[in-house]
## 1
Amino acid sequence: MNKMDTRTDSSKNRKPAAATRDSRKRLALCLSAALAALGGVSLAHAFGEFPAKVPVPANNPITPAKVALGKQLYFDPRISLSGTESCDTCHNVASNGTDNLGHSFGVFGRVDVPRNTPTVFNAAFNTVQFWDGRANSLEAQAKGPITNPVEMGMPNGEAVVKRLQQIPGYRKEFAQVFGGKDPITFDNVAAAIATYERTLITPDSPYDQYVKGDKKALDASATAGMGLFKSLGCDTCHAGPMFDNPGTPMGTGFFQKFPLHPTNAECAKYEQKYQFMKDPGRFDVTHNPADKYFYKVPGLRNVALTAPYFHNGSVQTLPQAVRVMAACQLGKNLNDAQVKDVVAFLDSLTGKFPKETLPHLPQTPNTSILMDVPHLEKAAAHKK
């Protein structure tokens, strides 16, 4: 992603974490006192409220018809080479926007290594897309999986257009939404899918309710975890409304090295077990040695539901992910009580998911358009 790197050494200027259950109780009491003293202004406001609107590019305005078309395309496996994989296959919107696999399966059973599938929910707020930030917009991201030889496998955008042009209903809908002489273009396919994805947001989490003034929305453990999250310095990178950047403009990205402290004794054990550094990260995009092991900082909204964790999907549970982050990014070891509180806070970031219904896909009366799939698979395998 030809974007600006914004990097922060999160090992500096850390405040010591509370280490005992008594200190956790004192922290919760202090927070409560601070709330009273500040007239209800909470530590939570430091992270930010869920945005009232999603960012929308001027050249791709949202319309109901475009959302409906994008939803059809999102669920349509015919835009994959095999005719079996849709966007929803890996980014399941009936669940949490992922498939909860370490590595997803693509066309013809191919395994999508080395990266884990991020959630599509709230992706509209990402300043860049993909772990390595190679796409600077949802529109650019939507094209990637479709033409990825492992994921959806289409050889190029022209092949996608050719297939869609064979479907009468799509010819009509693209004309209605985009107009023009040749409305079915790969750019318009991506624009429609991105427009639908901008509807996939999850506001009104317990944390959001707390920010708005309902102090009962978080229990004592989550409140203590929120304080610990900040005192440890987690918010250096996991900042802002999505807990993914401290205010980076759309299209530029916010990246951090992972692991930051690979020589920390505890982190070294995790590295040996999980092999985080087998993947060079953003270096694959920029080919700049300084970008080795840098990744887009992921948002933490709904993180309780999107296991397994990290760029390689190697860590199964959220408590273990918290331990890894403490050791590898902060150079700290957390005790079980601290981990429990941080996890309680992260659990509070689970929002309300929109109700999704399956669209009816346009048909091809009296014929199939997928008869050449075996030939295409052989051609694709030969190209590899």
## 2
Amino acid sequence: MGFSAAERAVRFDREHARSLRALAYRMLGARAEAEDIVQEAWLRWADVDERTVQHAGAFLSRTVTNLCLDRLQSAAARREQYVGVWLPEPLVDEASEWSPSPEAQTEFAQDVSVAFMLTLERLTPLERAAFLLREVFELEFDDIATRLGRSAAACRQLASRARQHVKADYARHEVEEEERQRLFGAFVTALQDFDVDALARVLTEDAVLLADGGGKVSAVPRVLEGGALVAKVFVGFARMPTSHHWRLRSARINGWPGYIVYEPSGQPIQTVALRPAPGHRISAIYVQRNPDKLLHLPPLPALEGGGNSRYPIVTNQQT
């Protein structure tokens, strides 16, 4: 017996949408594009007679994978022309919702950190797909071959090569909630006090700063290296008159400690993700300023009178 369109939509959302969004975001590094891909997959699925499909999940993940591969190929030229540093669209306080499932236990299943996403960017589209389908979604190579239109042996090579690249470029570091709060508190306190030395002590000696303005707003145009230099530059930004009335809300940015910065009007203007490192320090700061990548963030209520604090106002007010 067939299902109505409404029933099929409910089943799609309940049984498939979450894992498909997780796959699309990891493939593309863009929250909005991932949502678009999943919507396109639903539209295609709605036109299919389910009775002709042996495994709905396989059909849909193959559809999403192919749509993402097409999108990545068309995005390659845009990336070459991208102004400054490219960073993924941030997931704010919602990283767990973009995992394949709450029960997924593979090494990278819950990982959507900025560093992990940047590592995936260095893979070819096919390597990226093979790695994700194997290492995050635990598919067998025969199933991966079906999705990628390659032999199982070729997919095994793609996944193995990708894993070697990921292991060489990226070291995971688990962080408990208490440590997230401690790092955030130490970082912001030093920033509020305009204390370059204190901020440098929170950072590792080889810490880096990456900022994505997308050519739409001002941002540091290249990677800055060295904890002392990063601290000096970051405090310099905080000292600017335009920064004095900013408000900061603590948040998890792609699962890491961080915060959202708001103008007095309540509009979000950037996210800041802090990469934890062993030794209770921070090894990288990732600043997302591209307004196109912040559109999904809701505003805060405007400050009456525009605010009167010399320092950024830290608030835990939830949006």
